[in-house]
Design goal:
This protein has about 325 residues and is mainly β. It has a single domain, classed as Beta Barrel (Porin), CATH 2.40.160. Helix content is about 10%, strand content about 55%. It is built from two helices and 18 strands. The protein has a 14-stranded antiparallel beta barrel. A two-stranded antiparallel sheet has the order 4-5. The protein is elongated and about 75 Å long. The N terminus is likely disordered.
Length: about 325
């Protein structure tokens, strides 16, 4: 029975992977608030985004809230920075509290810094335009999460997010000014199931479920994405060990693209140093990912420092840094 479950999950992931190879039309430019889909955790990014079944600390809120229920610490704190393309920076923070039999609750936020953008407008001068000063542009999301173990094999988690984006203001015909701000609620949901075959687990999550948003007359959706994932410590086949090697695969079905595949691995030596690598399949820009993590425990506080490198085809390399504390 256990082998049959594993076989069915693997077959399902393979089926989802066939789609990108055969698809010819990509459903691009159909969603907004794109900052919601950027990897903000260094550990997750280094594993190619294949983190849905791996996250068991504060970073799980950004991928699968069900992972929070697997957190062993009483309190976990996370802070990270993603130096994205075109001088865009994403700063992220998260705080999670383990309430024992009552479950686990968390609070997180992502704050986008788009840098300095100079505004212009049409003018009857030799240049054809005139400067209007810097444009106030930004975005953020604040999330509240809850997760709980329904049994020793099944975990569920949910998250409610307040998302907001400000794209500056523009001058309308007639001289009035339009403030281009949009905000609202979005929801995430996830599950993790352990069938009992060593450390193997699989599950699903849905991210960015929301109503339609609208600027002026044009409506758009958030980047709704459905995920199915598997993960396992393959060193389990060797019996008891102290140096785990986790392999993970996430198959994704986004609203505005064809199916994608995230593959990642993490090898941890003596619970002190972690080496990570991954690959993102069927992405326009992203592909190979690499990273490293350093973990230490001092006076009862577990500390970890992580870095991730992401290669892009056209833009500069993306660097991510994060730090975390567990009490």
């Amino acid at each position: 029975m256990k082998k049959s479950i594993v076989f069915l999950v693997v077959c399902l992931l393979i089926t989802l992977c066939i789609g990108p190879a055969q698809a010819t039309i990509k459903k691009v430019a159909q969603t907004g608030f794109q900052f919601l889909r950027v990897d903000v955790g260094s550990r997750a990014a280094a594993m190619g985004g294949a983190y849905m079944m791996v996250g068991d600390d504060a970073t799980a809120m950004f991928y699968n809230p069900a992972g929070l229920a697997k957190m062993s610490a009483g309190l976990d704190v996370f802070a990270g920075q993603t130096r994205w393309i075109s001088d865009i920076t994403y700063n992220s923070v998260a705080l999670v509290k383990n309430l024992g039999n009552w479950g686990t609750v968390g609070l997180s936020g992502i704050f986008a810094d788009y840098g300095t953008i100079e505004g212009t407008r049409v003018a009857s001068n030799s240049q054809g335009y005139e400067e209007t000063g810097n444009v106030d542009v930004g975005a953020y999301t604040v999330s509240l999460s809850y997760a709980r173990n329904l049994s020793d094999k099944f975990t569920v988690g949910g998250q409610i997010k307040y998302v907001s984006q400000h794209l500056g203001s523009n001058l309308r015909v007639g001289g009035t000014t339009k403030d281009n701000t949009m905000s609202g609620l979005a929801y995430d949901f996830g599950t993790i199931f352990y069938p009992g075959f060593k450390s193997f687990r699989f599950g699903m999550s849905i991210r960015n479920f929301s109503k339609e948003f609208k600027y002026e007359q044009e409506g758009f959706q958030l980047p709704l994405t459905f995920y199915i994932g598997i993960a396992m410590d393959v060193m389990d086949f060797l019996g008891e060990h102290k140096n785990p090697l986790i392999l993970a695969v996430d198959a994704t079905h986004p609203r505005d693209y064809t199916e994608r595949l995230n593959i990642g691995g993490e090898y941890t030596f003596m619970n002190m140093v972690a080496l990570r690598a991954g690959y993102k399949y069927n992405y326009d820009q992203e592909g190979l990912t690499l990273g490293i993590g350093i973990m230490q425990k001092l006076v009862g506080i577990r500390f970890h420092l992580d870095y991730a490198y992401s290669n892009t085809d056209v833009f500069d390399v993306v660097n991510r840094f994060s730090v975390g504390f567990s009490f």
